[in-house]
Amino acid sequence: MRRIGRVLVSLLWLALLGAGGLWLMTDPRSPLPDAWNPITPLDVSAPPSWLTPVKLRAALATSETCIAALEGHAEFQHLDPLHDSDQCYIDPRLRISSVGPVALEPLETTCAVALRLAMWERHTLRAAAATLGQEVTALRHQSSYNCRRIRTPSGDGRRMSSHATAEAIDIRGVILANGQRLDLLESWQGESTEAQFFRALRDGACRWFVTVLGPEFNRLHADHFHFQSTGWGACR
Fold first, then answer.
1. Could you say which DSSP state residue 87 is in?
2. Least confident of 4-13, 45-54, 205-214
3. Does residue 75 form part of some domain?
4. Residue 58, domain member (yes or no)
5. pTM for the whole thing?
6. How far apart are CA 36 and CA 206, in angstroms?
7. What's the pLDDT at 38?
8. Total domain count for the chain?
9. Which residues lie below 8 Å from residue 160, measured CB to CB, with a gap of 6+?
10. What's the domain range around 184?
11. Is the pLDDT of residue 153 over 50?
């Protein structure tokens, strides 16, 4: 009987904890911040927490949830899917012209890349720019969609590039509020403030993108960062 009593007490405590957790997650009066609530959608502007990667994956689960998370954090137009071939397509397809307050020459890409770029701008680019004493007003890029095979130092590879499905974007530099242009090719080497700025951009991108390649990967990336929403977690 004592064992049964202990089991019943344990079950009661579990039920109370479960009810309390449910209240914390669902009641409007709950003191639990949205950033720490696993059932609230991703908020790009919210301070990151250990739950943010979980929320990001949930937002990327469908084009509808991705676009909902991106609303208000980028200037974009939702376009019909593009299908050039079985290997070259963009679906879902967005035309974006800014992330946060940072402009970029309009390009077509996937919602996954756009949303990850918005997270990177909000939580990496802004902090890194503070070290320069200037806000970044524009990103310089080398596009996202490109129907081609992967490039290697010895020539084109056999596999199609992630650019063939617009699952990547190449960033070559930034424009500051005073009009100054900073290029990765010219600023990566050394220990200058600009070099540290670009290293912070690379390191922070590894938090928001699945694959990040830059000058330390190979000579083909000497002049740009390759930010990719798919892959095996490379950060080089």
1. S
2. 4-13
3. yes
4. yes
5. 0.85
6. 22
7. 79
8. 1
9. 87, 88, 148, 149, 150
10. 40-152+160-228
11. yes
pLDDT at 235: 94
7-16 in b/e burial notation, b at 16+ Cβ within 10 A? eeeeeeeeee
Distance between CA atoms of residues 3 and 127, nearest Å: 57
Residue 212 in domain:
yes
Q: Which helix (H) or strand (E) holds 38?
A: none
Domain annotation covers residue 79: yes
- The Cα–Cα gap between 64 and 180 comes to 38
Range in 12-21, 58-67, 128-137, 162-171 with the lowest mean pLDDT: 12-21
Give the C-alpha separation, 46 to 145, whole Å.
29
Mean pLDDT across the stretch 62-85? 96
Q: Token digits for 123?
A: 């939580």
How far is the CA of 91 from the CAs of 53, 123, 131, 155, 179, in angstroms?
Answer: 22, 26, 37, 28, 35
Q: Please classify residue 83 by burial: count the beta carbons closer than 10 Å to its beta carbon, then call 0-12 exposed, 13-18 middle and 19+ buried.
A: exposed
Closest CA to 172 of 187, 183, 186: 183
Strand residue runs (E) in 153-193: 155-160, 168-176, 181-183
3-state secondary structure of 91: coil
